[in-house]
Amino acid sequence: MLDFNGQKAPLQASRTNLYFGRHPESGEMYSLYLLPEEAGPVQYIMVEGFRFKRIEREALLVPDPSLWRSFVGTYRDFDTLTIAIKDDLLYGYSAQLGHGTVLVPLDRTRFITEGGLVEFLIDESGKVLALAMREHSTYYPKVG
Fold first, then answer.
1. 32, 47 in Cβ contact below 8 A?
2. Could you give the count of Cα atoms lying within 13 Å of 77 in the half-sphere of its Cβ?
3. Which residues have C-beta within 8 Å of that of residue 127, sequence separation ≥ 6?
4. Domain boundaries, the chain
């Protein structure tokens, strides 16, 4: 079973370390490959060519919702992203995709989304400069 940002999907083994599954909403098929370690649990998986790293949540800093108001605003690069707070949750909306998603807190400045890891970049004075989408190496400066 794959738990990908809260969405659970059964997996079918194809061969050692290679599995296939279907997206729970779209039904699209995807592949998942476990990158084996010499010892200990798997640290990396590949899903449709995108690499993901295991995170030990217990070792992370505690999320701080009091910071979230400073993350609210508009971020722009090739797309315009709007960050807002609704019902005590942080949301991100992509103008290009016409779609929004909840940002699930991972620690103080990093969040998990349907699109991968989002990190808010803050300078030494506490000013939010930008957000970065790590899986896509995309940097969105804060413009408003």
1. yes
2. 10
3. 70
4. 2-54, 59-141
> Rounded to an integer, what distance in angstroms lies between the CA atom of residue 137 and that of residue 132?
7
**pLDDT by residue (tens digit) across 78-124?**
899 999 999 989 999 999 989 899 998 888 898 988 778 899 999 99
Alpha helices in 14-61 (DSSP H): none
Tokens 């659970």 map to which residue? Answer: 8
Could you tell me the fold of the domain covering 59-141? Lipocalin (2.40.128)
Separation in Å, CA 27 to CA 22, 84, 98, 124, 125? 5, 29, 20, 44, 46
Q: Is the pTM of this model over 0.70?
A: no
